[in-house]
Amino acid sequence: MLIKILLLISILTLFPFPTFGENRASFAKENGLLREEWSLAQKSNLYVVVQLKEKIIQIKAKGIILREFPLHHIDLWGNNVPDKALALVKKSALVKPSRKTVRPGDMKESEDFTLDVLELDDMPIRYTLVLDNRVFISIRPSEGVTSKFGNTLSSLEDFLVRPAVTFWYAVRGKQYTALDLGLEKQDAKALYWSFSEGAKCIVYPQ
Amino acid sequence: MFRDKKTLLASAALFLSLLMWGAGFYIGMWPPVETEGKGSDRSVSRLKSENQYLKQRIKSMAPDVFYIVIDSGNNRLYLKKGARVIREAVVSCGSGAVLRDPDKKTTWVFDTPRGVFTVQTKHVAPVWTKPDWAFIEEGEKIPGTVQGRMETGMLGDYALGFSSGYFIHGTLYTRLLGRNVTHGCVRVGDEDLKALFAATDIGTRIYIF
Predict the structure, then answer these.
(1) Would you tell me which of B41, B48, B58, B74 could form a disulfide with A63, CB atoms 3.0–4.6 Å apart?
(2) Is residue B93 among the annotated active site residues?
(3) B73 vs A5: CB contact, 8 Å cut-off?
(4) How far apart are CA B161 and CA A24, in angstroms?
(5) Which helix (DSSP H) or strand (DSSP E) does residue B121 occupy?
(6) CB-CB under 8 Å, A118 with B97
Protein backbone atom coordinates (compact mmCIF):
# COMPACT_ATOMS: atom_id res chain seq x y z
CA MET A 1 0.00 0.00 0.00
CA LEU A 2 2.78 2.37 0.99
CA ILE A 3 4.57 1.70 -2.28
CA LYS A 4 1.36 2.42 -4.20
CA ILE A 5 0.93 5.79 -2.46
CA LEU A 6 4.53 6.78 -3.10
CA LEU A 7 4.10 5.70 -6.73
CA LEU A 8 0.95 7.85 -6.98
CA ILE A 9 2.78 10.87 -5.55
CA SER A 10 5.65 10.31 -7.99
CA ILE A 11 3.22 10.18 -10.93
CA LEU A 12 1.46 13.33 -9.75
CA THR A 13 4.76 15.23 -9.76
CA LEU A 14 4.95 14.66 -13.52
CA PHE A 15 1.92 16.91 -14.14
CA PRO A 16 2.75 20.25 -15.79
CA PHE A 17 3.08 23.28 -13.52
CA PRO A 18 0.58 26.03 -14.45
CA THR A 19 2.63 28.95 -15.70
CA PHE A 20 1.83 32.64 -15.41
CA GLY A 21 2.30 33.59 -19.03
CA GLU A 22 1.73 36.70 -21.03
CA ASN A 23 -2.04 36.82 -20.72
CA ARG A 24 -4.58 39.36 -19.62
CA ALA A 25 -4.58 38.04 -16.05
CA SER A 26 -0.82 38.60 -15.71
CA PHE A 27 -1.06 42.15 -17.07
CA ALA A 28 -4.01 42.85 -14.79
CA LYS A 29 -2.01 41.51 -11.84
CA GLU A 30 1.00 43.64 -12.77
CA ASN A 31 -1.33 46.62 -13.13
CA GLY A 32 -2.71 46.06 -9.64
CA LEU A 33 0.78 45.77 -8.18
CA LEU A 34 2.03 48.89 -9.98
CA ARG A 35 -0.94 50.83 -8.62
CA GLU A 36 -0.07 49.55 -5.13
CA GLU A 37 3.54 50.65 -5.61
CA TRP A 38 2.46 54.04 -6.91
CA SER A 39 0.39 54.53 -3.79
CA LEU A 40 3.33 53.41 -1.55
CA ALA A 41 5.66 55.79 -3.39
CA GLN A 42 3.48 58.73 -2.34
CA LYS A 43 4.37 58.10 1.31
CA SER A 44 7.64 58.71 3.14
CA ASN A 45 8.22 55.13 4.27
CA LEU A 46 10.70 52.59 2.97
CA TYR A 47 9.27 49.62 1.09
CA VAL A 48 10.69 46.47 -0.44
CA VAL A 49 10.08 45.22 -3.97
CA VAL A 50 10.82 41.63 -4.99
CA GLN A 51 11.13 41.31 -8.78
CA LEU A 52 11.02 37.56 -9.38
CA LYS A 53 11.36 37.90 -13.17
CA GLU A 54 14.43 40.15 -12.94
CA LYS A 55 15.75 38.19 -9.92
CA ILE A 56 16.31 41.21 -7.71
CA ILE A 57 15.17 42.66 -4.38
CA GLN A 58 15.01 46.43 -4.08
CA ILE A 59 14.77 48.71 -1.08
CA LYS A 60 12.83 51.74 -2.26
CA ALA A 61 11.38 55.01 -1.01
CA LYS A 62 9.33 57.52 -3.02
CA GLY A 63 9.96 55.43 -6.13
CA ILE A 64 13.75 55.65 -5.81
CA ILE A 65 15.83 52.47 -5.66
CA LEU A 66 18.02 52.94 -2.60
CA ARG A 67 19.65 49.52 -2.69
CA GLU A 68 19.35 46.51 -4.96
CA PHE A 69 20.35 42.90 -4.27
CA PRO A 70 20.61 40.13 -6.88
CA LEU A 71 18.73 36.90 -6.15
CA HIS A 72 20.79 33.77 -6.73
CA HIS A 73 18.01 31.32 -6.09
CA ILE A 74 14.21 31.46 -6.22
CA ASP A 75 11.74 28.77 -5.15
CA LEU A 76 8.00 29.31 -4.89
CA TRP A 77 5.70 27.01 -2.96
CA GLY A 78 1.94 27.15 -2.50
CA ASN A 79 -0.45 29.85 -3.68
CA ASN A 80 0.64 32.77 -5.81
CA VAL A 81 1.64 35.85 -3.84
CA PRO A 82 -1.43 38.12 -3.41
CA ASP A 83 -1.45 41.09 -5.80
CA LYS A 84 -1.24 43.76 -3.12
CA ALA A 85 1.32 45.34 -0.81
CA LEU A 86 1.98 43.06 2.15
CA ALA A 87 3.13 44.31 5.54
CA LEU A 88 6.07 42.70 7.32
CA VAL A 89 4.61 41.16 10.47
CA LYS A 90 7.86 39.86 11.93
CA LYS A 91 11.37 38.74 11.18
CA SER A 92 12.09 35.27 12.45
CA ALA A 93 15.68 34.07 12.94
CA LEU A 94 17.35 31.37 14.99
CA VAL A 95 19.53 33.94 16.73
CA LYS A 96 18.06 37.44 16.67
CA PRO A 97 20.41 40.41 17.03
CA SER A 98 19.92 42.04 20.41
CA ARG A 99 20.19 45.69 21.38
CA LYS A 100 22.58 46.78 24.08
CA THR A 101 20.91 48.37 27.07
CA VAL A 102 22.72 51.39 28.49
CA ARG A 103 22.38 51.96 32.22
CA PRO A 104 22.47 55.54 33.50
CA GLY A 105 26.08 56.49 34.15
CA ASP A 106 27.42 53.78 31.82
CA MET A 107 28.61 56.19 29.19
CA LYS A 108 30.68 58.37 31.52
CA GLU A 109 33.94 58.69 29.66
CA SER A 110 36.45 56.24 31.01
CA GLU A 111 39.80 54.73 30.10
CA ASP A 112 38.39 51.31 29.21
CA PHE A 113 36.07 52.60 26.46
CA THR A 114 34.77 49.76 24.29
CA LEU A 115 32.22 49.79 21.48
CA ASP A 116 29.24 47.56 22.10
CA VAL A 117 26.76 48.55 19.43
CA LEU A 118 24.32 46.98 17.01
CA GLU A 119 25.93 46.82 13.57
CA LEU A 120 25.31 45.29 10.17
CA ASP A 121 27.61 42.35 10.91
CA ASP A 122 25.36 41.35 13.84
CA MET A 123 22.45 40.72 11.47
CA PRO A 124 21.55 37.11 10.58
CA ILE A 125 22.07 35.62 7.11
CA ARG A 126 19.32 32.95 7.38
CA TYR A 127 15.88 34.10 8.45
CA THR A 128 12.20 34.22 7.52
CA LEU A 129 10.22 37.34 6.75
CA VAL A 130 6.65 36.74 7.85
CA LEU A 131 4.31 38.92 5.79
CA ASP A 132 0.56 39.23 6.24
CA ASN A 133 -1.80 36.99 4.22
CA ARG A 134 0.38 34.01 5.28
CA VAL A 135 3.25 34.79 2.93
CA PHE A 136 6.60 33.53 4.22
CA ILE A 137 9.85 34.62 2.57
CA SER A 138 12.85 32.53 3.62
CA ILE A 139 16.20 34.21 3.04
CA ARG A 140 19.10 31.82 2.63
CA PRO A 141 22.78 32.51 2.01
CA SER A 142 23.87 31.47 -1.45
CA GLU A 143 27.60 30.99 -0.99
CA GLY A 144 29.88 28.79 1.14
CA VAL A 145 29.99 25.09 2.00
CA THR A 146 28.32 25.48 5.42
CA SER A 147 25.58 27.58 3.81
CA LYS A 148 24.92 24.87 1.22
CA PHE A 149 24.77 22.24 3.96
CA GLY A 150 22.36 24.46 5.92
CA ASN A 151 20.26 25.02 2.80
CA THR A 152 20.04 21.25 2.20
CA LEU A 153 18.81 20.73 5.77
CA SER A 154 16.28 23.57 5.36
CA SER A 155 15.05 22.08 2.06
CA LEU A 156 14.63 18.68 3.68
CA GLU A 157 12.69 20.24 6.54
CA ASP A 158 10.53 22.17 4.06
CA PHE A 159 9.88 19.00 2.05
CA LEU A 160 8.51 17.30 5.15
CA VAL A 161 6.75 20.20 6.86
CA ARG A 162 5.37 22.40 4.06
CA PRO A 163 2.89 19.86 2.57
CA ALA A 164 1.37 19.35 6.02
CA VAL A 165 1.10 23.11 6.62
CA THR A 166 -0.33 23.64 3.13
CA PHE A 167 -2.94 20.94 3.74
CA TRP A 168 -3.82 22.46 7.12
CA TYR A 169 -4.43 25.89 5.58
CA ALA A 170 -6.25 24.43 2.55
CA VAL A 171 -8.84 22.59 4.66
CA ARG A 172 -9.48 25.87 6.49
CA GLY A 173 -9.91 27.64 3.12
CA LYS A 174 -6.84 29.82 3.62
CA GLN A 175 -3.93 30.55 1.31
CA TYR A 176 -0.31 29.80 2.10
CA THR A 177 2.72 30.97 0.16
CA ALA A 178 6.36 30.21 0.82
CA LEU A 179 9.13 31.88 -1.13
CA ASP A 180 12.78 30.80 -0.78
CA LEU A 181 15.28 33.42 -1.89
CA GLY A 182 19.06 33.00 -2.07
CA LEU A 183 21.10 36.12 -1.31
CA GLU A 184 24.77 36.83 -0.73
CA LYS A 185 25.58 36.99 2.97
CA GLN A 186 26.20 40.74 3.12
CA ASP A 187 23.03 41.40 1.11
CA ALA A 188 20.99 39.16 3.43
CA LYS A 189 22.31 41.15 6.41
CA ALA A 190 21.58 44.48 4.71
CA LEU A 191 18.01 43.42 3.92
CA TYR A 192 17.44 42.35 7.53
CA TRP A 193 18.82 45.69 8.69
CA SER A 194 16.64 47.88 6.47
CA PHE A 195 13.36 45.95 6.29
CA SER A 196 11.54 46.80 9.53
CA GLU A 197 8.32 45.40 10.94
CA GLY A 198 5.33 47.26 9.52
CA ALA A 199 7.08 48.16 6.26
CA LYS A 200 5.36 47.04 3.07
CA CYS A 201 6.55 44.58 0.45
CA ILE A 202 5.41 44.04 -3.13
CA VAL A 203 6.23 40.82 -4.98
CA TYR A 204 6.08 41.02 -8.77
CA PRO A 205 5.53 37.52 -10.24
CA GLN A 206 7.86 35.48 -12.43
CA MET B 1 -5.84 -10.42 17.46
CA PHE B 2 -5.04 -7.32 19.59
CA ARG B 3 -1.67 -7.06 17.97
CA ASP B 4 -3.29 -7.23 14.54
CA LYS B 5 -5.77 -4.48 15.49
CA LYS B 6 -2.91 -2.29 16.69
CA THR B 7 -1.06 -2.85 13.45
CA LEU B 8 -4.21 -2.08 11.51
CA LEU B 9 -4.71 1.20 13.39
CA ALA B 10 -1.07 2.18 12.92
CA SER B 11 -1.30 1.42 9.19
CA ALA B 12 -4.52 3.44 8.91
CA ALA B 13 -2.90 6.38 10.71
CA LEU B 14 0.16 6.16 8.49
CA PHE B 15 -2.05 5.94 5.41
CA LEU B 16 -4.08 9.00 6.45
CA SER B 17 -0.94 11.00 7.27
CA LEU B 18 0.58 10.15 3.91
CA LEU B 19 -2.68 11.01 2.17
CA MET B 20 -2.79 14.42 3.87
CA TRP B 21 0.90 14.99 3.15
CA GLY B 22 0.33 13.99 -0.49
CA ALA B 23 -2.67 16.32 -0.78
CA GLY B 24 -0.66 19.15 0.77
CA PHE B 25 2.23 18.40 -1.58
CA TYR B 26 -0.12 18.51 -4.58
CA ILE B 27 -1.73 21.80 -3.51
CA GLY B 28 1.68 23.30 -2.75
CA MET B 29 3.18 22.31 -6.08
CA TRP B 30 0.13 23.04 -8.22
CA PRO B 31 -1.88 25.83 -6.62
CA PRO B 32 -5.26 26.77 -8.15
CA VAL B 33 -4.87 28.66 -11.44
CA GLU B 34 -5.27 32.45 -11.09
CA THR B 35 -8.64 33.90 -11.92
CA GLU B 36 -8.74 37.30 -13.57
CA GLY B 37 -9.11 40.01 -10.97
CA LYS B 38 -9.18 43.78 -10.95
CA GLY B 39 -8.60 45.38 -14.32
CA SER B 40 -9.59 42.28 -16.24
CA ASP B 41 -12.34 44.22 -18.03
CA ARG B 42 -9.63 46.22 -19.84
CA SER B 43 -7.98 44.99 -23.02
CA VAL B 44 -4.42 43.60 -23.04
CA SER B 45 -3.11 46.54 -25.06
CA ARG B 46 -4.69 49.05 -22.65
CA LEU B 47 -3.28 47.21 -19.65
CA LYS B 48 0.16 47.09 -21.30
CA SER B 49 0.23 50.83 -21.98
CA GLU B 50 -1.12 51.61 -18.50
CA ASN B 51 1.60 49.47 -16.94
CA GLN B 52 4.29 51.23 -18.97
CA TYR B 53 2.89 54.60 -17.91
CA LEU B 54 2.84 53.61 -14.22
CA LYS B 55 6.43 52.26 -14.39
CA GLN B 56 7.58 55.51 -15.98
CA ARG B 57 5.77 57.63 -13.37
CA ILE B 58 7.35 55.70 -10.50
CA LYS B 59 10.79 55.90 -12.13
CA SER B 60 10.48 59.64 -12.71
CA MET B 61 9.99 60.35 -9.01
CA ALA B 62 13.77 60.69 -8.45
CA PRO B 63 14.57 64.37 -7.82
CA ASP B 64 16.65 66.10 -10.50
CA VAL B 65 18.09 68.42 -7.85
CA PHE B 66 20.56 67.52 -5.05
CA TYR B 67 19.37 64.96 -2.52
CA ILE B 68 21.01 62.89 0.20
CA VAL B 69 20.92 59.10 0.56
CA ILE B 70 22.16 57.57 3.83
CA ASP B 71 22.91 53.84 4.18
CA SER B 72 22.71 53.53 7.98
CA GLY B 73 23.93 49.92 7.99
CA ASN B 74 27.10 50.58 6.00
CA ASN B 75 27.52 54.09 7.45
CA ARG B 76 27.73 55.75 4.05
CA LEU B 77 26.24 59.02 2.86
CA TYR B 78 25.73 59.82 -0.82
CA LEU B 79 25.08 63.28 -2.18
CA LYS B 80 23.20 62.64 -5.41
CA LYS B 81 21.67 64.52 -8.31
CA GLY B 82 19.34 62.40 -10.42
CA ALA B 83 21.05 59.03 -10.74
CA ARG B 84 24.56 60.52 -10.36
CA VAL B 85 26.56 60.25 -7.13
CA ILE B 86 28.22 63.64 -6.60
CA ARG B 87 29.96 62.77 -3.32
CA GLU B 88 30.33 59.74 -1.08
CA ALA B 89 31.18 60.09 2.61
CA VAL B 90 31.90 57.73 5.49
CA VAL B 91 29.59 58.64 8.36
CA SER B 92 28.43 57.37 11.76
CA CYS B 93 24.79 56.46 12.34
CA GLY B 94 22.73 55.32 15.34
CA SER B 95 24.08 52.67 17.72
CA GLY B 96 20.73 50.93 18.23
CA ALA B 97 21.32 50.98 22.00
CA VAL B 98 18.49 51.37 24.50
CA LEU B 99 18.59 53.74 27.49
CA ARG B 100 16.05 53.55 30.30
CA ASP B 101 15.40 56.28 32.82
CA PRO B 102 14.48 54.42 36.01
CA ASP B 103 12.86 57.49 37.58
CA LYS B 104 10.57 58.73 34.82
CA LYS B 105 10.17 55.28 33.23
CA THR B 106 11.19 56.75 29.86
CA THR B 107 13.02 54.70 27.22
CA TRP B 108 15.15 55.98 24.36
CA VAL B 109 16.23 53.87 21.38
CA PHE B 110 19.26 55.31 19.63
CA ASP B 111 18.37 54.47 16.03
CA THR B 112 18.81 56.74 13.04
CA PRO B 113 15.24 57.16 11.73
CA ARG B 114 14.55 55.50 8.38
CA GLY B 115 12.42 56.83 5.57
CA VAL B 116 12.24 60.07 3.60
CA PHE B 117 12.87 63.40 5.31
CA THR B 118 13.76 66.94 4.30
CA VAL B 119 16.37 69.39 5.54
CA GLN B 120 14.39 71.58 7.94
CA THR B 121 17.10 73.81 9.39
CA LYS B 122 20.68 74.82 8.51
CA HIS B 123 23.11 76.00 11.18
CA VAL B 124 26.63 77.47 11.07
CA ALA B 125 28.74 76.88 14.21
CA PRO B 126 25.87 75.03 15.87
CA VAL B 127 25.48 74.90 19.62
CA TRP B 128 24.20 71.63 21.04
CA THR B 129 21.26 71.92 23.42
CA LYS B 130 21.74 68.67 25.29
CA PRO B 131 18.55 66.65 25.69
CA ASP B 132 17.59 64.77 28.88
CA TRP B 133 19.12 61.47 27.71
CA ALA B 134 22.59 63.05 27.41
CA PHE B 135 22.58 63.75 31.16
CA ILE B 136 20.90 60.50 32.18
CA GLU B 137 23.35 58.47 30.13
CA GLU B 138 26.27 60.03 31.94
CA GLY B 139 24.58 59.77 35.33
CA GLU B 140 24.40 63.55 35.71
CA LYS B 141 21.65 65.73 37.09
CA ILE B 142 19.42 67.36 34.46
CA PRO B 143 19.91 71.18 34.66
CA GLY B 144 16.90 73.39 35.28
CA THR B 145 17.90 76.08 32.76
CA VAL B 146 18.44 76.02 28.99
CA GLN B 147 21.86 77.64 29.54
CA GLY B 148 22.93 74.58 31.52
CA ARG B 149 22.22 72.39 28.51
CA MET B 150 24.26 74.39 25.98
CA GLU B 151 27.49 72.88 24.69
CA THR B 152 29.63 74.43 21.93
CA GLY B 153 32.00 72.70 19.53
CA MET B 154 30.41 69.25 19.78
CA LEU B 155 28.53 69.37 16.46
CA GLY B 156 31.34 70.64 14.23
CA ASP B 157 31.12 73.63 11.90
CA TYR B 158 27.70 72.98 10.37
CA ALA B 159 24.49 71.11 11.09
CA LEU B 160 21.48 70.16 8.98
CA GLY B 161 18.32 69.49 10.99
CA PHE B 162 15.81 66.84 9.88
CA SER B 163 12.88 64.92 11.37
CA SER B 164 12.31 65.83 15.03
CA GLY B 165 15.56 66.62 16.80
CA TYR B 166 17.96 64.80 14.46
CA PHE B 167 20.92 66.42 12.72
CA ILE B 168 23.56 65.71 10.14
CA HIS B 169 26.54 67.31 11.85
CA GLY B 170 30.30 67.24 12.36
CA THR B 171 32.23 65.27 14.95
CA LEU B 172 35.21 65.37 17.26
CA TYR B 173 35.44 61.57 17.08
CA THR B 174 36.59 61.14 13.48
CA ARG B 175 38.19 57.75 14.30
CA LEU B 176 34.68 56.39 14.85
CA LEU B 177 33.42 57.36 11.39
CA GLY B 178 32.20 54.19 9.69
CA ARG B 179 30.82 52.74 12.94
CA ASN B 180 27.33 52.83 14.41
CA VAL B 181 27.98 54.91 17.51
CA THR B 182 25.60 57.87 17.56
CA HIS B 183 22.35 58.55 19.38
CA GLY B 184 20.49 58.75 16.06
CA CYS B 185 22.15 61.76 14.42
CA VAL B 186 24.44 61.33 11.43
CA ARG B 187 28.05 62.37 12.07
CA VAL B 188 30.09 63.48 9.05
CA GLY B 189 33.76 64.42 8.60
CA ASP B 190 34.64 68.13 8.26
CA GLU B 191 35.30 68.32 4.50
CA ASP B 192 32.27 66.25 3.54
CA LEU B 193 30.08 68.28 5.88
CA LYS B 194 31.24 71.52 4.28
CA ALA B 195 30.40 70.20 0.78
CA LEU B 196 27.05 68.90 1.99
CA PHE B 197 26.14 72.20 3.60
CA ALA B 198 26.99 74.10 0.43
CA ALA B 199 25.00 71.76 -1.85
CA THR B 200 21.79 71.55 0.15
CA ASP B 201 18.93 73.92 0.88
CA ILE B 202 15.97 73.87 3.23
CA GLY B 203 13.67 71.26 1.71
CA THR B 204 16.42 69.06 0.25
CA ARG B 205 15.30 65.46 0.52
CA ILE B 206 17.10 62.94 2.74
CA TYR B 207 16.51 59.22 2.13
CA ILE B 208 17.65 56.99 4.99
CA PHE B 209 17.59 53.18 4.88
Answers:
(1) B58
(2) no
(3) no
(4) 49
(5) strand B121-124
(6) yes
